[in-house]
């Protein structure tokens, strides 16, 4: 009997220990994702980007001519929230959707603070370098100037309310505002705002 | 015999010099501006105590001293050692019941120094400055992001400390709650809110708009936060307008940011108080508590170019940062100190009852050995951070003034340079370092 008990214990112990593990994979936009009231969570970026992209595509503001996608540059995305955020979380998703749909391509060679990717410039600086086969270096006049620029702002508004004996309710509202400007005319050809409002309460540890 | 053995063991455990006396020679060298000597002493102590409960605080002192001595890589190594130990203690946080038990049987100074909230933020801030000095911008940004995260994490850690302290108080909880110990409260002239270090935020903002590629807008978030925390000084309002224009594509002239680190942060002194608990087992206890003691006075700082003189704005009063951290942690310190004193008094009473005079002597020794407040604190932190932004003059020469002290410097080439000025005691020479940001 004893060897049997030992065997069962040996088999059951690792299983019990594995059962204690807490890390798991979840759907990034599913119900299991963590929701913080005062922060923009992954699912918020996804929702905002999806809805803004749909609005842009449906507006017809960037119709490709003869199957040739339009070229877009990323302008300034102002962060008017009270937290550090990476606005690329929003812009990248929109860029990817437009790129995949064949409606617009984003230039990385032009940006307000200089190019997003310095490589286009760096490769042209090889023109005077004899070590490189000059026929493989891009000639002058190949870079494409953008047709549109995409700029915007993310705004945060906070509010809190106390209802009777219940814990204080906190509310955060995040507004994602985007504009697309036709660089030839300077006119905003598309504008949209997406609101995400979150509410919650948290008990504080105190004396 | 048994009651004698225990106090002897406890004496061994607690019979160490307080941190104030441990650091006497080191602080003397530092305060007089003998940086090389201070770096040497700190390195010696840090090496000796690298496996002790004081390792973290000594690595922090060593990091600061080596930074002042221009040994930036070595300074970062010391800070990394401190960081590694702090992470080790953090990982252990949930399973250390033995720690609370040790605290109850001896004193809080017998527990490992795990790094206070502001230590962790300043550790990352100094590492960032060292990396900037070494020309490693990406590494500096990583450190500043960590400092930012540390400020948020400290709020959670403090909540945990309160819960742990309550548990350790056990049967004395209600009695301790009634104890009034107002005289331990630090006098805080400025309150920056929970664990906010405005200088770290300012440095982060400066690095974001100058060095970052994709999150430069966050510089304005940090600047707005400091602006509101500090009550809206004109320098920061102007900095926000200025950075906003630059992020919108405007050009700017060559700039020099001068950071003044002046004076020394407060230290902790011991104060012994009799606290009535009015419990059957223990009527009252005599316990030692830490109290903050400010050092020196605030010194105004200026930058002069030719005939023009610019005032440096106070960005961070470290007395306030340390005071706020002290005040937040004080309830937990009081709880644990009184709980420990009450436990020891109860043990001593029992020893006397069981073993008569011999037990009374043993009990007295036990209580005396354990009555030591935790006075450990990072002593090389400055009293104040002041900042001044000026357009770099044509000859690139700046005159730097801190109180009566004066020094001159030629700013390196570059569009944005940072000059760090460190002052020690009045009369000691200013320590000047500079690096190019852009």
UniProtKB/TrEMBL annotation, chain A:
Database matches in Pfam families: LpoB (PF13036)
Annotated InterPro entries: LpoB (IPR014094)
Protein name: Penicillin-binding protein activator LpoB
Provenance organism: marine metagenome
């Amino acid at each position: 009997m004893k060897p049997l008990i030992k065997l069962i214990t040996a088999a059951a112990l690792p299983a019990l220990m594995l059962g204690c593990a807490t890390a798991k994979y979840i759907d990034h936009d599913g119900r299991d994702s963590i929701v913080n009231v005062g922060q923009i969570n992954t699912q918020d970026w996804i929702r905002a980007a999806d809805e803004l992209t749909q609005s842009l595509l449906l507006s017809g503001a960037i119709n490709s001519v003869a199957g040739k996608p339009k070229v877009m540059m990323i302008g300034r995305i102002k962060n008017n929230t009270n937290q550090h955020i990476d606005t690329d979380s929003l812009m990248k998703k929109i860029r990817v959707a437009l790129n995949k749909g064949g409606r617009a391509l984003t230039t990385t060679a032009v940006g307000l603070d200089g190019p997003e990717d310095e490589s286009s410039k760096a490769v042209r600086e090889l023109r005077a370098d004899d070590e490189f086969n000059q026929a493989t270096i891009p000639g002058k006049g190949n870079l494409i100037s953008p047709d549109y620029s995409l700029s915007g702002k993310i705004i945060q508004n906070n509010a809190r309310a106390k209802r009777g004996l219940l814990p204080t309710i906190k509310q955060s509202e995040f507004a994602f505002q985007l504009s697309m400007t036709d660089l030839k005319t300077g006119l905003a050809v598309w504008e949209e705002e997406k609101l995400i409002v979150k509410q919650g309460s948290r008990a504080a540890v105190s004396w | 015999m048994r009651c004698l053995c225990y106090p002897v063991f406890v004496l061994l455990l607690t019979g160490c010099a307080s941190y104030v006396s441990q650091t006497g020679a080191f602080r003397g060298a530092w305060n007089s501006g003998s940086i090389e000597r201070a770096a040497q002493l700190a390195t010696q102590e840090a090496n000796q105590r690298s496996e002790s409960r004081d390792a973290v605080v000594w690595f922090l002192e060593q990091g600061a001293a080596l930074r002042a001595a221009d040994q930036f890589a070595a300074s970062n190594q010391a800070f990394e050692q401190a960081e590694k130990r702090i992470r080790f203690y953090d990982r252990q946080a949930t399973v250390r019941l033995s720690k609370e038990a040790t605290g109850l049987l001896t004193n809080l100074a017998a527990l490992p120094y795990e790094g206070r909230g502001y230590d962790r933020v300043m550790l990352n801030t100094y590492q960032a400055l060292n990396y900037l000095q070494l020309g490693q911008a990406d590494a500096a940004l990583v450190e500043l992001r960590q400092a930012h995260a540390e400020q948020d994490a400290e709020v959670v850690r403090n909540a945990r400390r309160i819960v742990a302290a309550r548990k350790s108080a056990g049967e004395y909880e209600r009695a301790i709650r009634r104890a009034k110990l107002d005289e331990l409260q630090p006098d805080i002239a400025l309150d920056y809110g929970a664990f906010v270090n405005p200088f770290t935020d300012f440095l982060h903002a400066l690095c974001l708009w100058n060095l970052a590629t994709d999150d430069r807008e966050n510089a304005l978030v940090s600047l707005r936060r400091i602006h509101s925390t500090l009550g809206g000084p004109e320098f920061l309002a102007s900095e926000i307008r200025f950075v906003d224009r630059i992020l919108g594509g405007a050009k700017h002239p060559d700039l020099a940011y001068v950071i003044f680190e002046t004076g020394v942060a407060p230290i902790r002194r011991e104060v012994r108080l009799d606290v009535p608990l009015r419990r059957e087992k223990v009527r009252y206890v005599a316990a030692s508590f830490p109290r903050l003691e400010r050092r020196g006075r605030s010194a105004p700082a200026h930058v002069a170019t030719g005939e023009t003189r610019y005032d440096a704005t106070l960005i961070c009063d470290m007395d306030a940062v340390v005071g706020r951290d002290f005040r937040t942690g004080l309830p937990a310190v009081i709880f644990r100190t009184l709980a420990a004193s009450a436990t020891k008094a109860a043990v001593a009473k029992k020893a006397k009852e069981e073993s008569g005079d011999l037990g009374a002597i043993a009990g007295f020794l036990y209580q005396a050995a354990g009555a030591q407040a935790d006075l450990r604190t990072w002593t090389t932190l400055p009293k104040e951070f002041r900042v001044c932004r000026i357009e770099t003059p044509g000859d690139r020469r700046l005159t730097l003034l801190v109180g009566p002290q004066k020094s001159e410097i030629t700013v390196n080439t570059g569009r944005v340079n940072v000059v760090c000025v460190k002052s020690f005691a009045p009369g000691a020479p200013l320590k000047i370092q500079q690096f190019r940001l852009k």
